[in-house]
Amino acid sequence: MFNRLLHLIYAPLRPLPLPRRIYRRLGFRGDYAVRIRPGTTLRLVNPPPHRGPRVYWDGLYKGTEPQSMRLWTQLVRRARVIGDVGAYHGIYALTAAALNPAAHVAAFEPLSLNARILRANNVLNGSRVDVVQAAVSDRVGEAAFGFNPGRAPSSGLIAADNRPEQELVPLTTLAVYCEQAGLPGFDLLKIDVEMHEPQVLRGMGAGRPILLIEVLSDAVGAQIAELLPDYLYYWIDEDHGPRRRERLQRLAKHSRNYLLCPAEKHDLVEQAVAG
Hints:
Low-confidence stretches: none
Mean pLDDT: 92
Number of helices: 10
Radius of gyration: 18 Å
Helix content: 25-40%
Number of strands: 14
Shape: globular
Structural class: alpha/beta
Distance between the termini: 41 Å
Largest sheet: 8 strands, mixed
């Protein structure tokens, strides 16, 4: 009852451009709705410590990756097999499932705390996503996964960092997942794995999906380019939209994503870029 009252109080404030230091204090327990398009919404859990979540206050298209999300919502509509690698709480995967119910959507999240929230979000939205609690790499097995308590998105395989907390997690590959699930391969992938992107691509198999991928360093960009020699690159400026690039580089602190496409799917990407 109290949370329902809070949502009624917050409703007239949500359209306002509140600064982060303000809306983070306007928290609540339970779940909340986020509109994807007219008539289509997501319901998401607000996990502890129950602060005001950015997507609640800013909406799906004014958050940290507004242009990336806009492109994603265009691309998911024509994909048949969609993967969200490094899914965190699943907003990309859940959006894909909501916009394209006929697609097979898989979300890969290794950290147990995040996976629990992802599963709860999936249940709230009809359990249409296959949630896989594993880190995606170029081999099957196990590995130590490091994370910073209180900063769940900042996590990664120990080989690449020295984060203070560790969790032993299973490793899988995209090729193994598709083989076990009886799938021909992914058409569309979002990959955000804190500089482990090259290993994910090495385990992808023979498919040629469109990729929404994070590039955190020039070195990682060079490795990705070597693995995908005939792909076209669009850097996603989160303020102004995508731009064609010849190299994969880290260009801006808050615009770290690229849209990569094989030449034979260039028309699909051009349509998405045009909106």
